[in-house]
Structures are given as C-alpha cells and as structure tokens.
Amino acid sequence: MKVTGQCHCGKISYEAEVDPARATACHCTDCQRLSGSAFRVSVPAPKETFRLLAGTPRIYVKTAESGSKRAQAFCADCGAPIYSSAISDPPMYTLRVGCLDQRAQLPPVKQIWCRSSLDWAMNLEELPKVERQ
Predict the structure, then answer these.
(1) How many helices (H) and strands (E) does the chain have?
(2) Beta-strand (E) ranges in 1-133?
C-alpha cells in the first residue's frame, strides 16, 4: 500500500510502500516517552520505497534496553515523530502511523511490549465518546 505523510507543520513530507498487516502498537516505555502517549503505532517501510519529498528530519539516537541504537527522526520545528531506523544504512524505516495520511487504514494488528503497558490503555472501549472537546 502506498502511503504519504507529513509532520504537523508540513515542513517534512514523505511517501513509502507499507504492508498494512505489519502495523503494530508498541507499549514499551521508550515509545510512551517518545510519543508522549500510552503507546505508539508504527508500520515498517522498506528502504527502497521510502522517499523524503520535503524537509530534513532531526535525528535523536536512543539506546534500547538491548543496547542497540536507533535513530528517532522528528521535525525540529513542530516536534512530530516521523520514523525510527537503524543508525547507518537502514534496511527499513519504521513510520509513525499518526503522521500518515492513510492512518485510518492502518489499524494495529498486534501489540508488543505489553509488560510495560498501562493497565488503562489496554481497553478504552467503555469510555464515553465525545465528538469534540
């Protein structure tokens, strides 16, 4: 599936090909802190298909629990997270679904790092739904 995306302010835009069956919700504490939310939804895009159309993301390198380092790309102006990848010559870009135009078509098919999940984040179905603030 072809996807297009951009940061909140629009200075960074990109396109890629993804497999919707690989969209994942991650509950690890790194994803919680880096997204400012209870979990982060991502989908991988092969390097050959990912193309920046405008802008250059800023990179923050984080060290995972395993010790491996990952580049976290985000917009330096608005702070929107764009992707993560290996530090050098990444074979894959893990795109942040929230910045994709096709995000409604990319529901997560699995959840990972559930040992770090917040109990309340595992089922929001019963909460009241309000159309606007």
Answers:
(1) 1, 10
(2) 2-6, 13-17, 24-26, 40-46, 51-54, 58-63, 69-74, 81-86, 92-96, 110-112
What is the pLDDT confidence band of residue 133, given thresholds at 50, 70 and 90? Answer: confident
Q: What angle do CA 39, 110, 16 make, to 5 degrees?
A: 80
Q: Where in the sequence is the domain holding 78, given as residue range(s)? A: 2-116
The CATH number of the domain where 108 resides is what? 2.170.150.70
Q: Which amino acid is at 7?
A: C
Query: In this structure, is residue 86 part of a structural domain?
Result: yes
Q: Does a structural domain hold residue 124?
A: no
Nearest to 50 by CA among 82, 72, 25: 82
Read off the pTM: 0.90
Q: Would you give the end-to-end CA distance of the chain in angstroms?
A: 33
Residue 126 placed within a domain? no
